[in-house]
């Protein structure tokens, strides 16, 4: 599977899209480069939420590998998102090109770093990594596949997935989330939220016994995407997703003009709830405009 990212990640194809090497190579040849910013944390969150799900072709019994290719320093917290993947047994290989931050690559990648971190000076030099990286990836898959892990469930389904996400008490800066827990209580919940039109992804991790959360310090008049994931020892259950918009900030009302003279006037209005200051702009009206 492959996703590109800038300020907004984009899935190019899912794990289940192609079944032969030639199909994947043809898709790669037709790939169009996506320019833009470097929100690596948001990209890793996208991979976890969207690309490593059963409905996207991820098999629970298969080993999960993520190869991150980047040519810059992340503009958000890549380490936090990477740690969440690694905690779930997902192995991350980090490949830097040109201006990539090697310290950040080492933070994001899985151990041992001598096998999972690569850095080259320019894109044509990536070809020099293919042979070694292929051998390392195949060896790691075999090693991990040979380990017994009887705790991995056969499927997630309703037993491991929360239901009925409710978003209430929405204000200009906050909202309340509540959901019904799955039949099998999770170890933790991971709640991810971010503006739908692009922005920094934020997350909260809760104890599995808790099934509600108050989100605060939000931006007013903004649509937010919210996801709730149950986390077990060896798997992430299906997530709940919701979308809602915060309210606009309250406005001053009932503007009145009085005490007019040749060079002055008095303005008064009903206060806006929560306002700490007011900005008053005044300019001469254009010709033929209302006085």
TrEMBL record:
Spans traversing the lipid bilayer: none
Coiled coil residues, start to end: none
Subcellular location as annotated: Secreted, Extracellular space, Extracellular matrix
Alphabetical list of Pfam families matching this protein: fn3, VWA
Entry-linked CDD domains: FN3 (cd00063)
Occurrences of domain VWFA (ranges): 1-133
InterPro entries named among the record's database cross-references: ECM_Assembly_Org, FN3_dom, FN3_sf, Ig-like_fold, VWF_A, vWFA_dom_sf
Principal subcellular localization: secreted
Keyword terms of this UniProt record: Extracellular matrix, Secreted
Domain Fibronectin type-III: 161-250
Protein name: COKA1 protein
Organism: Uria aalge (Common mure)
């Amino acid at each position: 599977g492959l996703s590109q990212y800038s300020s907004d990640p984009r899935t190019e194809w899912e794990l289940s899209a192609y079944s032969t090497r030639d199909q994947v190579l043809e898709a790669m040849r037709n790939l169009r480069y996506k320019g833009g910013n470097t929100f690596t944390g948001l990209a890793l969150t996208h991979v976890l939420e969207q690309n490593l799900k059963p409905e996207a072709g991820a098999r629970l019994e298969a080993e999960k590998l993520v190869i991150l290719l980047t040519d810059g320093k992340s503009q958000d917290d890549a380490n936090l998102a990477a740690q969440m993947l690694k905690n779930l047994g997902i192995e991350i290989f980090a490949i830097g090109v040109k201006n990539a931050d090697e310290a950040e690559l080492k933070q994001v990648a899985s151990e041992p770093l001598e096998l999972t971190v690569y850095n080259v000076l320019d894109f044509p030099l990536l070809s020099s990594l293919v042979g070694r990286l292929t051998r390392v990836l195949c060896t790691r898959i075999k090693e991990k596949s040979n380990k017994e892990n009887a705790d991995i469930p056969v499927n997630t389904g309703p037993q491991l997935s929360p239901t009925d996400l409710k978003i209430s008490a929405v204000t200009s800066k906050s909202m309340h989330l509540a959901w019904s827990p799955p039949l099998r209580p999770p170890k933790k919940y991971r709640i991810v939220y971010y503006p739908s039109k692009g922005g920094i992804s934020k997350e909260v991790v809760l104890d599995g016994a808790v099934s509600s959360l108050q989100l605060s310090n939000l931006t007013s008049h903004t649509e937010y995407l919210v996801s709730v994931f149950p986390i077990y020892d060896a798997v992430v259950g299906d997530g709940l997703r919701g979308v809602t918009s915060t309210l606009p900030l309250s406005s001053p009302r009932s503007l009145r003009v009085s005490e007019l003279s040749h060079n002055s006037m008095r303005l008064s209005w009903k206060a806006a709830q929560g306002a700490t200051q007011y900005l008053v702009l005044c300019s001469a009206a254009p010709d033929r405009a209302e006085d």
